[in-house]
Amino acid sequence: MDWDDPLRHLAPISGHPAKKSTVLSSELSAISDQELASLKVNVKLDRFGLASARHNRAACILGSFFQFLEDDGRKVLAAEILAWIDTEDNLFELANHLVAAILLPFKASGGKAPPPISRPSIFANEGDEIEQAVAFIEPSSRRDQARLKRQCLRREGYQCIYTGCFDHRSVTNEEATLPQKAKCGSTECAHIIPFALGNFNEKDSLETENKALIWWSLYRYFPGLQGKIDAASTNQLSNAVTLFSEAHKTFGGFRLTFYPQEGVPHSYETTLMVPQSYIESKSGSSIIQLEQHDASIPMPDPDYFKVHHIISQILEVSGLGCEIDELLEAAENLDPYGSSNLGLMLSQKMLIHTWV
Questions:
Q1: What's 133's DSSP letter?
Q2: What is the secondary structure of 38-54 as a DSSP string?
Q3: Residue boundaries of the structural domains of the chain
Q4: DSSP readout, 243-284?
Q5: Of 219, 257, 312, 331, which is least surrounded by CB within 10 A?
Q6: Is 339 exposed, middle or buried (0-12, 13-18, 19+ CB in 10 A)?
């Protein structure tokens, strides 16, 4: 492993109650939106949450997922909640699993990937020559990152998709011409579904099992991802975009989102959840249009942006985003070298223990 995977110190991810209880989620997948609304899942969760602070916390987590998931995932969750509403341990376990298998891994790994090969270029074709020259000495993940970044830059016209900021290195190397009054700066290749979700040490059985559980849960509640992306394909072009460094940090922290506009290809409504942020959109409004400057390079998949947006909303509304940030900061302060057990800290500070 040639980089510090932010998820490699996770403790075993808490199990899902479906392993010990049959839920007829397949039957609910065929119900209509009106029927889903008539199930009154939120009403039942509200009643469940009145029992104690622990019940309220579980209800808040489950309610946040139910509020923001798309219909296909919401119907599965509805089936589970209704099947287990009178079996509180199962609901506690379900809430714990959603935090440990989805929210924590996304939040901990957002914006993190191996740094690409970075060397100054003098000649226009030097980038390709460097890529070939270092093939025998650089780890493959770093070579992949360098290649991915260069392709995204070409597709995006050497600009950040959100701010319109031009990539400084590309301007310096005369790959891009800086228009009058345009800004340039440092850009990065940003993964929409975090790179770390697909990067794992196959010799580490715990890490392998954790990543398998993460993907099982993603497919269960975001079935639109199945067949498009998996642990081996997070580094695909449809899952990567060019972002100004500060915008990448904000996006990776799930405080900048892109939600696809229905009926308008590559048009997105952006949400910036950072008070008084100086990061401004290139359009001057919340709606931006992505442009394809190289037709041979696939555009970002809107379904990936949807997943990122949904998880951002859940983190924000549930308050778990701030809690996980504090947890990650505490882990970093405790051990700046990254050996802290995030899973143990999570269970001690965040999860809903059934024995309380």
A1: H
A2: HT-HHHHHHHHHTS-HH
A3: 1-109+200-229+319-356, 126-196+234-302
A4: EEHHHHHHHHTT-EEEEEPTTSTTEEEEEE-STT-----TTS
A5: 219
A6: exposed
CA atoms within 13 A on the CB side of 246: 12
What's the gap between Cα 11 and its chain centre? 20
Q: What is the pLDDT of residue 251?
A: 97
Listing DSSP states for 324-336 in one string gives: HHHHHHHHHHH-T
Cα atoms in the Cβ-side hemisphere of radius 13 Å centred on 289: 7
Radius of gyration from C-alpha coordinates of the chain = 21
| Average pLDDT over all residues of the chain | 85
Contact 13, 100 (CB under 8 A): yes
Beta bridge partners of 270: 258
pLDDT digits (tens, 9 = 90+) for 269-323: 999 998 878 899 999 999 999 999 999 999 999 999 999 999 999 999 999 999 8
- Which pair of structure tokens corresponds to residue 30? 């065929």
User: For residue 18, what are its two tokens?
Assistant: 């479906």
The confidence band for 168, taking pLDDT boundaries of 50, 70 and 90, is very high
**Residue 39: partners with Cβ closer than 8 Å, 6 or more residues away:** 78, 82
pLDDT at 135: 42
Asked if residue 254 lies in contact with residue 308, where contact means CB atoms within 8 angstroms, the answer is yes
User: What does the alpha-carbon distance between residue 20 and residue 202 come to, in Å, rounded to a whole number?
Assistant: 27
3-state secondary structure of 297: coil
- Of 317, 208, 298, the C-alpha closest to 254 is 317
Q: How confident is the model over 327-347, as pLDDT tens digits? A: 888 777 766 555 556 655 665
Residue with tokens 């993603």: 218
| 239: its two tokens | 């899952």
Bridge partners (DSSP) of residue 242 are 189
Q: Is pLDDT at 258 greater than 90 in this prediction?
A: yes
Higher pLDDT, 140 or 183: 183
Cross-strand pairs, 267: 289
